[in-house]
Design a protein that fits this description.
The chain has 192 residues and is an alpha+beta fold. It has a single domain, classed as Alpha-Beta Plaits. The protein is 31% helix and 21% strand. A hairpin with an 8-residue loop joins strand 4 and strand 5.
Length: 192
Amino acid sequence: MQTMSNYSPHLTHAVTLTFKTRALISPQDFSKCNTPKDDIWRSCKRYQSGYQWDAKPDLREWRYLNEEVAESTLRYFYARLSFLAFGKDAKRVSTKNFSNPLMIASIEGSSRGRRLHAHLAIGNLPGHIDIRNAIERAWFSCDFANQQIKITPLNNEVGWLTYISKEIDLGRVDALKIQSIREPQSYLNPLA
């Protein structure tokens, strides 16, 4: 709790995100490759004319949610939120360490048989953007994003951080991952 309270002056929004239990995932499409077609495929088309060579098979598959998938979904959400909030500054080598939001996340629901959901405390977002829109767009671009999302301005930072860490009191220490706190480089200097 002491580590999280160091960040409380910088936090501005409390967010609750709900995950889908399964999602239909499409693999990456490599149709834009510029490689020339081999002669082997042309001869196969000629001699195996009964097979539909131009029909595209459905390569999508159902994937089910677990905590590892939920963590990778939150990492992707953070990357999308960084880009939507700061633009190309989030990717430039010279500015990416300072152009990132602050995010503290807790994943809950797996121990009690409930739907997995994440509680987030977010800060360091620029004031000129529509924060609600950026968070919603970043979340809905994730594969396992459910429609249930709650975004509120954070008035009581310590209370929200206590609520985020309530699973620790129930004996589930890995719900709040201190090593995965996403922070801009500028916050590391005053804390050291």
